[in-house]
Amino acid sequence: MTELAGLLAEQAPEDVGKSGPLGLLLTVVLLIAVFLLVRSMSKHLKRIPPTFDPVDPAQEVPDSPAELFEPRTGDQLLDSLRNQPRAIEGPRRDDEGRAGGPSAG
Q1: pLDDT in tens, 27-42
Q2: CA gap 4, 11 in Å, rounded
Q3: Domain residue spans in the chain?
């Protein structure tokens, strides 16, 4: 067994196990690629908005919490219009599921 190890030691060139210039070049290229990717990602992350909620410019933000509970102008009119029956209603259904009133049939 010692003879086999001795023969392998004699045949192995002296640069076996050492990194060469190709390994250094590959490492440098990979480091440059990682640096560019990190820089690009940080630019993209800076462009992300703080929230993804849709912003309605017509929506007013109250200055104090008391303004949330105070009636605004026109709220009473809107409530009364919502509670009134529709001017045009869809066809009514009878008990058997047919469209139309009692005269339909």
Answers
A1: 999 999 999 999 999 9
A2: 11
A3: 20-48
